[in-house]
């Protein structure tokens, strides 16, 4: 059996396990710099379950790395899985290994301020500058 067939069967088995123990998540694939978890970026819905990464029994304070159990043949690194209460970023998806996810429980926007070039003032204007990213899930 070649590596591709083995990975496909492993992914399918993880999907079966997720349907038994997980819950439904929407899969989002960002298309730009604005709101990656928006209805326009939704690809599909799939069952997924998550456990803390590192083999610990319970969830530690500030736990950000998680192992995802779902059919990874539909996902790729950089995607987001989200439901009403949780959002996960798919950080690593290597063949034969658990999918490494980051639980993103915050949302950030980043703006590059406009430099002031008037007179002798060498600070920044109070008006917003160039938008770098808007409403991105973060940890």
Which structural traits does this protein have?
139 residues; mainly beta; six-stranded antiparallel β-barrel; two-stranded antiparallel sheet
What does this structure look like?
This protein has 139 residues and is mainly beta. It contains 1 helix and 8 strands. It has one helix at residues 3-21, and strands at residues 23-28, 42-52, 65-69, 80-82, 87-92, 99-103, 106-112, 130-138. It has a 6-stranded antiparallel β-barrel. A two-stranded antiparallel ribbon has the order 7-8. Strand 4 and strand 5 form a beta hairpin. It starts with a helix and ends with a strand. The mean pLDDT is 85.
Q: How many helical elements? A: 1
**Sheet of most strands:** 6 strands, antiparallel, barrel
Low-confidence parts: none
Distance between the termini: 39 Å
Global Rg: 19 Å
Mean pLDDT: 85
Task: Based on Cα principal axes, name the global outline.
Answer: elongated
What percentage of the residues does DSSP assign to strands (E)?
A: 35-45%
């Amino acid at each position: 059996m070649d590596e591709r067939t083995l990975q496909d069967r492993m992914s399918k088995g993880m999907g079966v396990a997720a349907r038994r123990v997980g819950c439904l998540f929407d899969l989002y694939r960002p298309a730009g710099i604005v709101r990656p978890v928006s209805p326009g970026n939704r690809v599909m819905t799939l069952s997924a379950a998550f456990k803390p990464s590192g083999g610990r029994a319970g969830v530690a304070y500030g736990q950000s790395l998680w192992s995802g159990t779902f059919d990874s043949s539909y996902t790729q690194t950089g995607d987001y899985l989200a439901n009403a209460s949780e959002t996960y970023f798919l950080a690593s998806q290597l063949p034969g290994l658990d999918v490494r996810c980051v639980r993103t429980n915050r949302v950030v926007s980043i703006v590059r301020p406009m430099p002031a070039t008037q007179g002798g003032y060498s600070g920044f204007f109070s008006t917003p500058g160039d938008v770098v990213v808007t409403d991105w899930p973060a940890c």
